[in-house]
Amino acid sequence: MHEGEGPSALLLSLNLFLILVAYYLLKPVREALILAGGGAEVKSYASAGQALLLLAAVPLYGWLASRVPRRRLINVVTVFFAACLVVFYLLAQAAVPLGIVFFLWVGVFNLMVPTQLWAFANDIYTPQAGKRIFVLVAFGASVGAVVGSWIAGRLIAPLGVHQLMLVAAGLLVVSLVLTNLVDTRQRGQTSGRAGREAEGAPLPRGSAFASVLRSRYLILIGLLALVLNWVNTTGEYLLGRIALESAKDMVGTAAAGGLDTEALIGKFYASFFTGVNLAGLVLQLFVVSRVLKYLGVGVAVLVLPLLALGGYALAAAVPLLAVVRWTKTAENATDYSLQSTVRQVLFLPTTREEKYKAKQVTDTIFVRAGDVLSAVLVFAGTTWLGFAVREFALANVALACVWLGLAVATGREHARRAKTPARD
Protein backbone atom coordinates (compact mmCIF):
# COMPACT_ATOMS: atom_id res chain seq x y z
CA MET A 1 0.00 0.00 0.00
CA HIS A 2 1.11 3.52 -0.79
CA GLU A 3 0.27 6.47 1.43
CA GLY A 4 -3.46 7.19 1.49
CA GLU A 5 -4.50 3.95 -0.27
CA GLY A 6 -5.25 1.85 2.80
CA PRO A 7 -8.69 3.12 3.91
CA SER A 8 -10.39 2.83 0.50
CA ALA A 9 -8.80 -0.55 -0.18
CA LEU A 10 -9.99 -1.88 3.19
CA LEU A 11 -13.51 -0.51 2.62
CA LEU A 12 -13.67 -2.18 -0.79
CA SER A 13 -12.39 -5.40 0.75
CA LEU A 14 -15.05 -5.24 3.47
CA ASN A 15 -17.65 -4.47 0.79
CA LEU A 16 -16.79 -7.60 -1.19
CA PHE A 17 -16.72 -9.52 2.09
CA LEU A 18 -20.36 -8.61 2.77
CA ILE A 19 -21.49 -9.36 -0.80
CA LEU A 20 -19.85 -12.80 -0.71
CA VAL A 21 -21.29 -13.57 2.73
CA ALA A 22 -24.72 -12.75 1.31
CA TYR A 23 -24.12 -14.91 -1.76
CA TYR A 24 -22.95 -17.91 0.25
CA LEU A 25 -25.96 -17.63 2.51
CA LEU A 26 -28.06 -17.93 -0.65
CA LYS A 27 -26.14 -20.74 -2.36
CA PRO A 28 -27.28 -23.55 -0.01
CA VAL A 29 -30.84 -22.15 -0.27
CA ARG A 30 -30.56 -22.27 -4.07
CA GLU A 31 -29.18 -25.82 -4.10
CA ALA A 32 -31.79 -27.09 -1.65
CA LEU A 33 -34.70 -25.60 -3.57
CA ILE A 34 -33.61 -26.64 -7.06
CA LEU A 35 -32.30 -30.14 -6.32
CA ALA A 36 -35.14 -31.14 -4.01
CA GLY A 37 -37.68 -29.69 -6.40
CA GLY A 38 -36.36 -30.96 -9.72
CA GLY A 39 -33.05 -32.83 -9.52
CA ALA A 40 -29.58 -32.34 -10.98
CA GLU A 41 -30.79 -32.37 -14.59
CA VAL A 42 -33.36 -29.59 -13.97
CA LYS A 43 -30.62 -27.57 -12.27
CA SER A 44 -28.40 -27.94 -15.31
CA TYR A 45 -31.16 -26.96 -17.73
CA ALA A 46 -32.16 -23.99 -15.57
CA SER A 47 -28.63 -22.63 -15.92
CA ALA A 48 -29.36 -22.09 -19.61
CA GLY A 49 -32.32 -19.89 -18.70
CA GLN A 50 -29.97 -17.51 -16.89
CA ALA A 51 -28.36 -16.64 -20.22
CA LEU A 52 -31.75 -15.63 -21.63
CA LEU A 53 -32.41 -13.37 -18.64
CA LEU A 54 -29.01 -11.74 -19.03
CA LEU A 55 -29.68 -10.99 -22.69
CA ALA A 56 -32.31 -8.60 -21.37
CA ALA A 57 -30.58 -7.53 -18.12
CA VAL A 58 -27.19 -6.53 -19.57
CA PRO A 59 -28.55 -4.14 -22.25
CA LEU A 60 -30.80 -2.63 -19.57
CA TYR A 61 -27.76 -2.15 -17.34
CA GLY A 62 -25.84 -0.54 -20.22
CA TRP A 63 -28.79 1.78 -20.91
CA LEU A 64 -28.88 2.83 -17.25
CA ALA A 65 -25.09 3.30 -17.10
CA SER A 66 -25.31 5.71 -20.04
CA ARG A 67 -27.82 7.92 -18.24
CA VAL A 68 -26.86 8.08 -14.55
CA PRO A 69 -23.59 8.64 -12.62
CA ARG A 70 -21.83 5.57 -11.28
CA ARG A 71 -22.97 6.09 -7.67
CA ARG A 72 -26.63 6.18 -8.63
CA LEU A 73 -26.13 3.23 -10.97
CA ILE A 74 -24.69 1.09 -8.17
CA ASN A 75 -27.34 2.23 -5.69
CA VAL A 76 -30.26 1.42 -7.99
CA VAL A 77 -28.99 -2.03 -8.96
CA THR A 78 -28.08 -3.10 -5.42
CA VAL A 79 -31.37 -1.91 -3.89
CA PHE A 80 -33.25 -3.79 -6.60
CA PHE A 81 -31.57 -7.09 -5.73
CA ALA A 82 -32.05 -6.58 -1.99
CA ALA A 83 -35.76 -5.87 -2.52
CA CYS A 84 -36.09 -9.04 -4.63
CA LEU A 85 -34.89 -11.12 -1.67
CA VAL A 86 -37.65 -9.72 0.55
CA VAL A 87 -40.21 -10.59 -2.13
CA PHE A 88 -38.83 -14.13 -2.47
CA TYR A 89 -39.08 -14.62 1.29
CA LEU A 90 -42.73 -13.53 1.31
CA LEU A 91 -43.50 -15.86 -1.60
CA ALA A 92 -41.79 -18.74 0.19
CA GLN A 93 -43.87 -18.10 3.29
CA ALA A 94 -46.95 -18.35 1.08
CA ALA A 95 -45.75 -21.80 -0.10
CA VAL A 96 -45.15 -20.62 -3.69
CA PRO A 97 -42.74 -23.01 -5.51
CA LEU A 98 -39.48 -21.09 -6.02
CA GLY A 99 -36.88 -23.66 -7.08
CA ILE A 100 -36.34 -22.70 -10.72
CA VAL A 101 -37.18 -18.99 -10.39
CA PHE A 102 -34.86 -18.49 -7.42
CA PHE A 103 -32.09 -20.46 -9.13
CA LEU A 104 -32.37 -18.19 -12.18
CA TRP A 105 -32.38 -15.06 -10.02
CA VAL A 106 -29.31 -16.09 -8.00
CA GLY A 107 -27.48 -16.80 -11.26
CA VAL A 108 -28.05 -13.21 -12.38
CA PHE A 109 -27.34 -11.73 -8.94
CA ASN A 110 -24.04 -13.51 -8.35
CA LEU A 111 -22.66 -12.19 -11.64
CA MET A 112 -24.03 -8.65 -11.86
CA VAL A 113 -23.51 -7.40 -8.30
CA PRO A 114 -19.85 -8.51 -7.78
CA THR A 115 -19.02 -7.54 -11.39
CA GLN A 116 -20.44 -4.07 -10.76
CA LEU A 117 -18.27 -3.59 -7.68
CA TRP A 118 -15.17 -4.80 -9.52
CA ALA A 119 -15.95 -2.38 -12.37
CA PHE A 120 -16.11 0.38 -9.75
CA ALA A 121 -12.72 -0.72 -8.36
CA ASN A 122 -11.25 -0.81 -11.87
CA ASP A 123 -12.59 2.72 -12.40
CA ILE A 124 -10.91 4.30 -9.37
CA TYR A 125 -7.47 2.66 -9.66
CA THR A 126 -4.75 2.89 -12.28
CA PRO A 127 -3.41 -0.40 -13.77
CA GLN A 128 -0.24 -0.09 -11.67
CA ALA A 129 -2.15 0.48 -8.43
CA GLY A 130 -4.77 -2.14 -9.25
CA LYS A 131 -2.23 -4.95 -9.58
CA ARG A 132 -1.06 -4.22 -6.03
CA ILE A 133 -4.39 -3.43 -4.40
CA PHE A 134 -6.70 -6.00 -6.02
CA VAL A 135 -5.03 -8.86 -4.16
CA LEU A 136 -6.14 -7.29 -0.87
CA VAL A 137 -9.61 -6.44 -2.19
CA ALA A 138 -10.09 -10.00 -3.46
CA PHE A 139 -8.98 -11.27 -0.04
CA GLY A 140 -12.17 -9.74 1.37
CA ALA A 141 -14.17 -11.85 -1.09
CA SER A 142 -12.31 -15.00 -0.04
CA VAL A 143 -12.97 -14.36 3.65
CA GLY A 144 -16.61 -13.54 2.92
CA ALA A 145 -17.07 -16.81 1.07
CA VAL A 146 -15.68 -18.76 4.02
CA VAL A 147 -17.73 -16.91 6.62
CA GLY A 148 -20.90 -17.03 4.53
CA SER A 149 -20.79 -20.77 3.94
CA TRP A 150 -19.85 -21.39 7.60
CA ILE A 151 -22.74 -19.26 8.85
CA ALA A 152 -25.18 -20.89 6.42
CA GLY A 153 -24.33 -24.34 7.72
CA ARG A 154 -25.18 -23.25 11.24
CA LEU A 155 -28.28 -21.16 10.56
CA ILE A 156 -30.23 -23.61 8.40
CA ALA A 157 -31.26 -25.82 11.34
CA PRO A 158 -32.37 -23.08 13.81
CA LEU A 159 -33.75 -20.54 11.30
CA GLY A 160 -34.77 -22.60 8.30
CA VAL A 161 -33.80 -22.32 4.65
CA HIS A 162 -35.97 -19.35 3.62
CA GLN A 163 -34.99 -17.00 6.46
CA LEU A 164 -31.45 -16.78 5.07
CA MET A 165 -32.87 -14.61 2.26
CA LEU A 166 -33.65 -11.79 4.70
CA VAL A 167 -30.19 -11.96 6.27
CA ALA A 168 -28.61 -11.67 2.83
CA ALA A 169 -30.81 -8.68 1.94
CA GLY A 170 -29.65 -6.83 5.05
CA LEU A 171 -26.00 -7.47 4.18
CA LEU A 172 -26.50 -6.02 0.69
CA VAL A 173 -27.84 -2.79 2.19
CA VAL A 174 -24.78 -2.47 4.46
CA SER A 175 -22.44 -3.14 1.51
CA LEU A 176 -24.11 -0.33 -0.42
CA VAL A 177 -23.32 2.11 2.40
CA LEU A 178 -19.64 1.16 2.09
CA THR A 179 -19.65 1.69 -1.68
CA ASN A 180 -20.96 5.21 -1.18
CA LEU A 181 -18.27 5.90 1.42
CA VAL A 182 -15.53 4.79 -0.97
CA ASP A 183 -16.99 6.86 -3.80
CA THR A 184 -17.10 9.97 -1.59
CA ARG A 185 -13.53 9.39 -0.45
CA GLN A 186 -12.18 8.88 -3.97
CA ARG A 187 -13.89 12.02 -5.27
CA GLY A 188 -12.16 13.98 -2.54
CA GLN A 189 -8.78 12.60 -3.62
CA THR A 190 -9.16 13.03 -7.39
CA SER A 191 -9.74 16.76 -7.74
CA GLY A 192 -6.78 16.96 -10.09
CA ARG A 193 -8.23 14.52 -12.63
CA ALA A 194 -10.50 15.37 -15.50
CA GLY A 195 -13.87 16.23 -13.99
CA ARG A 196 -15.83 13.71 -16.02
CA GLU A 197 -13.90 10.69 -14.81
CA ALA A 198 -13.47 11.87 -11.22
CA GLU A 199 -17.16 12.46 -10.78
CA GLY A 200 -18.06 9.08 -12.26
CA ALA A 201 -20.27 10.68 -14.90
CA PRO A 202 -22.58 8.64 -17.16
CA LEU A 203 -20.77 6.66 -19.84
CA PRO A 204 -20.96 7.39 -23.58
CA ARG A 205 -24.11 5.94 -25.13
CA GLY A 206 -23.66 2.78 -27.13
CA SER A 207 -24.23 -0.96 -27.10
CA ALA A 208 -22.45 -3.00 -24.44
CA PHE A 209 -22.20 -5.88 -26.91
CA ALA A 210 -20.63 -3.67 -29.59
CA SER A 211 -17.88 -2.61 -27.18
CA VAL A 212 -16.88 -6.28 -26.83
CA LEU A 213 -17.16 -7.27 -30.48
CA ARG A 214 -14.87 -4.50 -31.69
CA SER A 215 -12.00 -5.67 -29.45
CA ARG A 216 -10.03 -8.89 -29.98
CA TYR A 217 -8.83 -8.68 -26.38
CA LEU A 218 -12.34 -8.51 -24.95
CA ILE A 219 -13.51 -11.35 -27.19
CA LEU A 220 -10.68 -13.51 -25.85
CA ILE A 221 -11.62 -12.63 -22.26
CA GLY A 222 -15.23 -13.51 -23.04
CA LEU A 223 -14.34 -16.86 -24.63
CA LEU A 224 -12.08 -17.63 -21.68
CA ALA A 225 -15.03 -17.01 -19.34
CA LEU A 226 -17.32 -19.10 -21.54
CA VAL A 227 -15.14 -22.23 -21.57
CA LEU A 228 -14.25 -21.84 -17.89
CA ASN A 229 -17.92 -21.84 -16.96
CA TRP A 230 -18.75 -24.66 -19.38
CA VAL A 231 -16.24 -26.86 -17.57
CA ASN A 232 -17.23 -25.61 -14.12
CA THR A 233 -20.99 -26.04 -14.62
CA THR A 234 -20.59 -29.54 -16.03
CA GLY A 235 -18.53 -30.36 -12.96
CA GLU A 236 -21.27 -28.90 -10.76
CA TYR A 237 -23.76 -31.19 -12.49
CA LEU A 238 -21.60 -34.21 -11.69
CA LEU A 239 -21.34 -33.20 -8.04
CA GLY A 240 -25.07 -32.44 -7.74
CA ARG A 241 -26.01 -35.74 -9.37
CA ILE A 242 -23.92 -37.77 -6.95
CA ALA A 243 -24.89 -35.64 -3.92
CA LEU A 244 -28.62 -36.10 -4.66
CA GLU A 245 -28.24 -39.88 -4.97
CA SER A 246 -26.31 -39.97 -1.69
CA ALA A 247 -28.92 -37.84 0.14
CA LYS A 248 -31.77 -40.05 -1.05
CA ASP A 249 -29.92 -43.13 0.18
CA MET A 250 -29.38 -41.51 3.60
CA VAL A 251 -32.99 -40.46 4.30
CA GLY A 252 -34.51 -42.62 7.03
CA THR A 253 -31.15 -43.88 8.27
CA ALA A 254 -29.31 -42.95 11.44
CA ALA A 255 -26.77 -40.98 9.39
CA ALA A 256 -29.52 -38.57 8.25
CA GLY A 257 -30.15 -37.39 11.81
CA GLY A 258 -33.86 -36.96 11.10
CA LEU A 259 -33.27 -34.56 8.18
CA ASP A 260 -35.16 -34.80 4.90
CA THR A 261 -33.61 -34.79 1.41
CA GLU A 262 -33.75 -30.98 1.06
CA ALA A 263 -32.03 -30.37 4.40
CA LEU A 264 -29.39 -33.06 3.75
CA ILE A 265 -28.50 -31.47 0.43
CA GLY A 266 -28.33 -28.03 2.03
CA LYS A 267 -26.07 -29.37 4.78
CA PHE A 268 -23.78 -31.15 2.29
CA TYR A 269 -23.36 -28.04 0.18
CA ALA A 270 -22.75 -25.81 3.20
CA SER A 271 -19.91 -28.17 4.19
CA PHE A 272 -18.62 -28.33 0.61
CA PHE A 273 -18.65 -24.54 0.21
CA THR A 274 -16.85 -24.13 3.54
CA GLY A 275 -14.03 -26.41 2.38
CA VAL A 276 -13.80 -24.66 -0.99
CA ASN A 277 -13.70 -21.22 0.55
CA LEU A 278 -11.17 -22.10 3.25
CA ALA A 279 -8.85 -23.39 0.54
CA GLY A 280 -9.52 -20.28 -1.54
CA LEU A 281 -8.76 -18.08 1.46
CA VAL A 282 -5.36 -19.74 1.98
CA LEU A 283 -4.54 -19.37 -1.72
CA GLN A 284 -5.57 -15.71 -1.73
CA LEU A 285 -3.52 -14.98 1.37
CA PHE A 286 -0.28 -16.82 0.55
CA VAL A 287 -0.21 -17.63 -3.18
CA VAL A 288 -2.03 -15.15 -5.42
CA SER A 289 0.13 -12.06 -4.89
CA ARG A 290 3.31 -14.10 -5.35
CA VAL A 291 2.09 -15.72 -8.56
CA LEU A 292 1.19 -12.32 -10.02
CA LYS A 293 4.40 -10.68 -8.82
CA TYR A 294 6.92 -13.33 -9.81
CA LEU A 295 5.23 -15.24 -12.64
CA GLY A 296 2.98 -12.58 -14.14
CA VAL A 297 -0.53 -12.56 -15.61
CA GLY A 298 0.48 -14.71 -18.59
CA VAL A 299 1.36 -17.64 -16.32
CA ALA A 300 -1.35 -17.02 -13.71
CA VAL A 301 -4.10 -17.38 -16.32
CA LEU A 302 -2.84 -20.92 -17.15
CA VAL A 303 -3.06 -22.34 -13.63
CA LEU A 304 -6.80 -23.11 -13.45
CA PRO A 305 -7.13 -24.84 -16.86
CA LEU A 306 -4.12 -27.02 -16.02
CA LEU A 307 -5.68 -27.90 -12.66
CA ALA A 308 -9.03 -28.72 -14.29
CA LEU A 309 -7.31 -30.90 -16.88
CA GLY A 310 -5.63 -33.00 -14.19
CA GLY A 311 -8.63 -33.09 -11.85
CA TYR A 312 -11.17 -34.30 -14.39
CA ALA A 313 -8.72 -36.82 -15.79
CA LEU A 314 -8.53 -38.27 -12.27
CA ALA A 315 -12.34 -38.16 -11.91
CA ALA A 316 -12.68 -40.05 -15.22
CA ALA A 317 -10.32 -42.73 -13.92
CA VAL A 318 -11.96 -42.94 -10.45
CA PRO A 319 -15.59 -41.67 -10.75
CA LEU A 320 -16.50 -41.62 -7.05
CA LEU A 321 -18.18 -38.95 -4.90
CA ALA A 322 -15.03 -38.23 -2.90
CA VAL A 323 -12.92 -37.75 -6.05
CA VAL A 324 -15.48 -35.48 -7.74
CA ARG A 325 -15.92 -33.48 -4.54
CA TRP A 326 -12.20 -32.83 -4.10
CA THR A 327 -11.71 -32.13 -7.80
CA LYS A 328 -14.41 -29.49 -7.54
CA THR A 329 -12.93 -28.21 -4.28
CA ALA A 330 -9.54 -27.61 -5.90
CA GLU A 331 -11.11 -26.15 -9.05
CA ASN A 332 -13.48 -23.79 -7.26
CA ALA A 333 -10.93 -22.69 -4.66
CA THR A 334 -8.50 -21.67 -7.40
CA ASP A 335 -11.29 -20.04 -9.38
CA TYR A 336 -12.44 -17.95 -6.41
CA SER A 337 -8.91 -16.82 -5.50
CA LEU A 338 -6.24 -16.73 -8.22
CA GLN A 339 -8.54 -16.82 -11.25
CA SER A 340 -10.92 -14.23 -9.77
CA THR A 341 -8.05 -11.80 -9.17
CA VAL A 342 -6.58 -12.41 -12.62
CA ARG A 343 -9.99 -11.81 -14.20
CA GLN A 344 -10.10 -8.33 -12.62
CA VAL A 345 -6.47 -7.55 -13.50
CA LEU A 346 -7.21 -8.33 -17.16
CA PHE A 347 -9.57 -5.33 -17.22
CA LEU A 348 -7.08 -2.82 -15.82
CA PRO A 349 -5.70 -1.79 -19.27
CA THR A 350 -9.19 -0.94 -20.63
CA THR A 351 -11.35 2.16 -21.01
CA ARG A 352 -14.11 3.22 -18.59
CA GLU A 353 -16.75 2.14 -21.08
CA GLU A 354 -15.13 -1.30 -21.34
CA LYS A 355 -14.88 -1.55 -17.54
CA TYR A 356 -18.60 -1.00 -16.93
CA LYS A 357 -20.38 -2.05 -20.13
CA ALA A 358 -18.09 -4.64 -21.74
CA LYS A 359 -17.26 -6.21 -18.37
CA GLN A 360 -20.94 -6.86 -17.72
CA VAL A 361 -21.10 -8.69 -21.07
CA THR A 362 -17.97 -10.83 -20.61
CA ASP A 363 -18.70 -11.57 -16.95
CA THR A 364 -22.40 -12.37 -17.46
CA ILE A 365 -23.44 -13.21 -21.03
CA PHE A 366 -20.31 -15.19 -21.89
CA VAL A 367 -20.35 -16.91 -18.50
CA ARG A 368 -23.99 -17.92 -18.89
CA ALA A 369 -23.36 -19.00 -22.48
CA GLY A 370 -21.06 -21.56 -20.88
CA ASP A 371 -24.04 -22.67 -18.78
CA VAL A 372 -26.13 -23.08 -21.93
CA LEU A 373 -23.48 -25.24 -23.59
CA SER A 374 -23.15 -27.28 -20.40
CA ALA A 375 -26.94 -27.80 -20.37
CA VAL A 376 -26.78 -28.98 -24.00
CA LEU A 377 -23.99 -31.38 -23.09
CA VAL A 378 -25.92 -32.73 -20.08
CA PHE A 379 -29.10 -33.15 -22.14
CA ALA A 380 -27.31 -34.94 -24.96
CA GLY A 381 -25.28 -37.04 -22.53
CA THR A 382 -28.23 -38.17 -20.44
CA THR A 383 -30.88 -38.42 -23.18
CA TRP A 384 -29.06 -39.81 -26.22
CA LEU A 385 -25.54 -40.89 -25.28
CA GLY A 386 -26.07 -42.57 -21.91
CA PHE A 387 -23.15 -40.76 -20.29
CA ALA A 388 -22.15 -41.72 -16.76
CA VAL A 389 -19.85 -39.68 -14.52
CA ARG A 390 -16.76 -40.96 -16.35
CA GLU A 391 -17.89 -39.76 -19.78
CA PHE A 392 -18.83 -36.29 -18.52
CA ALA A 393 -15.44 -36.03 -16.85
CA LEU A 394 -13.72 -36.94 -20.14
CA ALA A 395 -15.71 -34.22 -21.91
CA ASN A 396 -14.33 -31.73 -19.40
CA VAL A 397 -10.80 -32.97 -20.11
CA ALA A 398 -11.28 -32.12 -23.80
CA LEU A 399 -12.71 -28.70 -22.97
CA ALA A 400 -9.81 -27.96 -20.63
CA CYS A 401 -7.43 -28.39 -23.58
CA VAL A 402 -9.36 -25.70 -25.52
CA TRP A 403 -9.33 -23.54 -22.40
CA LEU A 404 -5.52 -23.75 -22.24
CA GLY A 405 -5.19 -22.46 -25.79
CA LEU A 406 -7.45 -19.48 -25.05
CA ALA A 407 -5.53 -18.74 -21.85
CA VAL A 408 -2.24 -18.56 -23.76
CA ALA A 409 -3.72 -16.15 -26.34
CA THR A 410 -5.33 -13.97 -23.64
CA GLY A 411 -2.08 -13.71 -21.67
CA ARG A 412 -0.20 -12.56 -24.76
CA GLU A 413 -2.83 -9.96 -25.65
CA HIS A 414 -2.80 -8.63 -22.08
CA ALA A 415 0.98 -8.18 -22.25
CA ARG A 416 0.57 -6.21 -25.49
CA ARG A 417 -2.23 -4.04 -24.08
CA ALA A 418 -0.36 -3.36 -20.83
CA LYS A 419 2.39 -1.67 -22.86
CA THR A 420 -0.17 0.67 -24.49
CA PRO A 421 -2.47 2.34 -21.89
CA ALA A 422 -6.15 2.40 -22.86
CA ARG A 423 -7.73 5.74 -23.76
CA ASP A 424 -11.32 6.76 -23.01
Question: Summarize this, please?
Answer:
The protein contains 15 helices and no strands. It is mainly α and 424 residues long. It has one domain: Growth Hormone, Chain: A, CATH 1.20.1250.20.
Write the layout of secondary structure elements.
Blueprint lengths: L5 H32 L2 H26 L4 H24 L5 H26 L2 H33 L4 H26 L5 H4 L9 H6 L2 H35 L10 H26 L1 H8 L1 H21 L3 H25 L6 H32 L5 H31 L5
Helix pairs in contact: 1-4, 1-5, 1-6, 1-10, 2-4, 2-9, 2-14, 3-4, 3-6, 4-14, 5-10, 5-13, 9-10, 9-13, 9-14, 9-15, 10-13, 12-13, 12-15
Number of helical elements = 15
Q: How much helicity do the residues have?
A: over 70%
Radius of gyration: 21 Å
Unreliable stretches: 191-198
Number of strands: 0
Tell me the name of the CATH homologous superfamily.
MFS general substrate transporter like domains
Strand content: under 5%
Span of the ends, CA to CA: 27 Å
Level-1 CATH class name: Mainly Alpha
CATH fold field value? Growth Hormone, Chain: A
Give the total of domains: 1
Outline the biggest β-sheet. Answer: none
CATH architecture: Up-down Bundle
Structural description of this entry:
The protein has 424 residues and is mostly helical. The protein has one domain (6-191, 206-419): Growth Hormone, Chain: A, CATH 1.20.1250. The chain has helices spanning 6-37, 40-65, 70-93, 99-124, 127-159, 164-189, 195-198, 208-213, 216-250, 261-286, 288-295, 297-317, 321-345, 352-383, 389-419. α1 packs antiparallel against α10 and α3 runs antiparallel to α4. The longest helix has 35 residues, at 216-250.
